[in-house]
Amino acid sequence: MTVRILRAAELTPAPWKNGGGLTREIATGPEGTEADAFDWRVSLADVTADGPFSVFPGVDRILTVVEGAGMDLVVDGEHHIVDEPLWPHGFPGDLPTEGFLLGGPVVNLNVMYRRARTRAETAVVCGTVRLLPPEGGTVLAVSLDDGAELEGGDDGVRLGRYDAVLAAGEPPGILRTMGQAVLITFSRT
Questions:
Q1: How many beta carbons lie within 10 A of that of residue 168, not counting itself?
Q2: Taking a C-beta distance cutoff of 8 angstroms, is the pair 122, 184 a contact?
Q3: pLDDT, tens digit, for every residue of 116-156?
Q4: Torsions phi, psi for 80 (to 5 deg)
Q5: 113, 60 in Cβ contact below 8 A?
Q6: Can you tell me the distance from the alpha carbon of 125 to that of 129, in angstroms, rounded to the nearest whole number?
Q7: φ, ψ of residue 66 in degrees (nearest 5)
Q8: How many other C-beta atoms are found inside a 10 Å radius of the C-beta of residue 78?
Q9: In the predicted model, what is the mean pLDDT of residues 95-103?
Q10: What's the start-to-end Cα distance of the chain, in Å?
Q11: β-bridge partners, 92
Q12: Half-sphere exposure (Cβ direction) of 130: Cα atoms closer than 13 Å
């Protein structure tokens, strides 16, 4: 794989591991791995009610609220108020975690990665950013608004809300956003 455009309209909702809600998987690495065998995974979760998060042994998580008022995450009994939109919040995915909605449903962008094999960094960016996969790693950019454009190669590619660019190896180009995007890099530990 060098560069792939992943369209939000093609994401299929699937039940959470614990059955408590729905998720739309954007990408996994390595591609095509089983649900419990990924090195990393990125998805959009629709959270409509309070409840427990799925437990993933050996996995760290980064949650970014992309729609809604936010959540009170109770991670191993400790409260983490995640009420600032578009602020990535990391926590261990193997500790018991419950989420309590602060003001109605939310959509979370979830990044999960196996801490023994992979390192992930997540940032919310706006304007213009050069997409650079780390050596031997992967970069994923998820547009949070309509109108983003990937410039590179012969033509530009327009991205809608929650469309993504996935690249390994060579840089895919420059992402120009009309609003914001979530930029995630994955590298080997």
A1: 19
A2: yes
A3: 999 999 999 999 999 999 999 999 999 999 989 999 766 78
A4: -130, 110
A5: yes
A6: 8
A7: -110, -10
A8: 10
A9: 96
A10: 21
A11: 60
A12: 4
Closest by alpha carbon to 99, among 44, 42, 49?
A: 49
In this structure, what token pair is assigned to residue 166?
Answer: 């996935």
Please state, in angstroms and rounded to a whole number, the distance separating the CA atoms of residues 165 and 170: 13
Alpha carbon distance 140, 164 (integer Å): 7
> Which residues have CB under 8 Å from 147's CB, separation 6+?
158, 159, 160, 177, 178, 179
Least confident of 16-20, 30-34, 73-77, 144-148: 16-20
- Copy the structure tokens of residue 146: 């309509």
**Gap between the Cα atoms of 55 and 45, Å rounded:** 15
Record the tokens describing residue 41, joined without a space: 């995974």
- Distance between CA atoms of 4 and 14, rounded to whole angstroms? 22
| Token output for 57 | 């042994």
Tokens of 105: 């449903």
